């Protein structure tokens, strides 16, 4: 699969996720490679380790305010730190799990790990570059970071 | 008033998803009886709560959903299991069905899609019961 096609898989996944789960469309900006420096994380980041036919990670990072509004849209009343962590992990899990439709059964994914705190950095091999897909939803900005060798 | 025909156990490592499935269920035939965070908890709760219907995630810590489906069906061949997973490839769905699941719903899902899947599952079970009684 070409890089363009791979990006298309994740962009389609993001659009489908927002349209289905919070029933409001999101928009994806122009994807770009993080060449000079590693992409920084937002308030909450869900990270899925990928192994098998491909290896690397898929991470979804978002501000607290965005995740809180997403929970509200899902009729959830518990906006605790635990539930925000849960949601960001679940989003990362869903976007990477859905990618198996195109990447195949050998695209093995881990259970999510969650990082909290703005300005952190993701841990991935130095020789690989992460693809950053900007996501705009309502007035919020999140990012999907895909780093696969 | 007639008691609900099905006792629902929700198995998912995400609290947000567990609560969402519980809230979204609007079928009077289905009564929520409990929730588990992984396969090990699900097996323990199965012994205690005797669910007739289970929604099951696949990617979970401790014991994954595939193994749990197989163990639940070994305990109770009549149990109805709807696998609800983000793993969207066909082989995953086929494997879940081969292990004894009765249906597969891909995440993300709407409330409507969840209720449709549950309705189909228990409708199918009612048809099977009717067919069994007629034999």
Strand content of chain B: 15-25%
**Roughly what is the average pLDDT of chain B, rounded to an integer?**
90
Tell the overall outline of chain B: globular
Oligomer: heterodimer
Number of strands of chain B: 5
Q: Could you give me the name of the CATH homologous superfamily of chain B?
A: Response regulator
Can you characterise this structure?
The complex is a heterodimer of chains A (149) and B (135). Helix content of chain A is 35%, strand content 30%. With 149 residues, chain A is an alpha+beta fold. In chain A, helix 1 (3-22) packs across helix 3 (81-98). Chain A is globular and about 40 Å long. The model of chain A has no long low-confidence stretch (mean pLDDT 93). By secondary structure, chain B is an alpha/beta fold. Helices cover 48% and strands 20% of the residues of chain B. In chain B, strands 2-1-3-4-5 form a five-stranded parallel β-sheet, sandwiched between helices. The longest helix of chain B has 24 residues, at 111-134. Chain B starts with 5 loop residues before the first strand and ends with a helix. The chains are: A alpha+beta (149), B alpha/beta (135). Chain A binds chain B through residues 16-17, 20-21, 23, 71, 74-76, 78, 82-83, 86-87, 89-90, 93-101, 104-105, 107, 109-111, and chain B through 13-17, 19-20, 23, 59-61, 85-89, 91-92, 106-110.
Features:
heterodimer, A: 149 residues, alpha+beta, Chemotaxis protein chec, 8-stranded antiparallel beta sheet, 4 helices, 30% strand, globular, B: 135 residues, alpha/beta, Rossmann fold, 5-stranded parallel beta sheet, 48% helix, disordered C terminus
Can you describe this structure in just a few lines?
The complex is a heterodimer of chains A (149) and B (135). By secondary structure, chain A is α+β, with helices and mostly antiparallel strands. In chain A, 35% of the residues lie in helices and 30% in strands.
């Amino acid at each position: 699969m070409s890089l363009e096609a791979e990006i298309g898989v994740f962009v389609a996944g993001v659009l489908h996720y927002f349209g289905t789960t919070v029933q409001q469309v999101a928009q994806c900006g122009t994807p770009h490679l993080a060449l000079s420096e590693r992409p920084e994380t937002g308030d909450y980041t869900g990270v899925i380790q990928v192994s098998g036919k491909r290896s690397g990670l898929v991470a979804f990072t978002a501000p607290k305010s965005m995740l809180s509004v997403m929970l509200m849209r899902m009729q959830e009343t518990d906006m605790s730190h635990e539930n925000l962590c849960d949601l960001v992990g679940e989003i990362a899990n869903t976007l990477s799990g859905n990618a198996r439709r195109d990447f195949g059964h050998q695209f093995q994914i881990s259970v999510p790990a969650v990082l909290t705190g703005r300005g952190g950095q993701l841990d991935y091999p130095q020789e690989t570059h992460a693809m950053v897909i900007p996501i705009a939803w309502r007035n919020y900005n999140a990012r999907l970071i895909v780093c696969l060798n | 008033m007639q008691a609900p025909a099905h006792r629902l156990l929700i198995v998912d490592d995400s609290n947000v998803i567990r609560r969402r499935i519980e809230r979204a269920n609007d079928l009077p035939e289905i009564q929520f009886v409990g929730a588990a965070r992984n396969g090990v908890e699900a097996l323990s709760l199965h012994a205690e709560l005797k669910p007739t219907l289970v929604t099951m995630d696949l990617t979970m810590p401790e014991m994954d959903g595939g193994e749990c489906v197989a163990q639940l069906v070994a305990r109770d061949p009549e149990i109805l299991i709807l696998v609800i997973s983000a793993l969207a490839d066909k082989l995953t769905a086929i494997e879940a069905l081969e292990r004894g699941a009765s249906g597969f719903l891909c995440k993300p899902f709407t409330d409507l899609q969840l209720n449709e899947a549950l309705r189909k599952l228990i409708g199918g079970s009612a048809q099977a019961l009717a067919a069994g009684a007629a034999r």
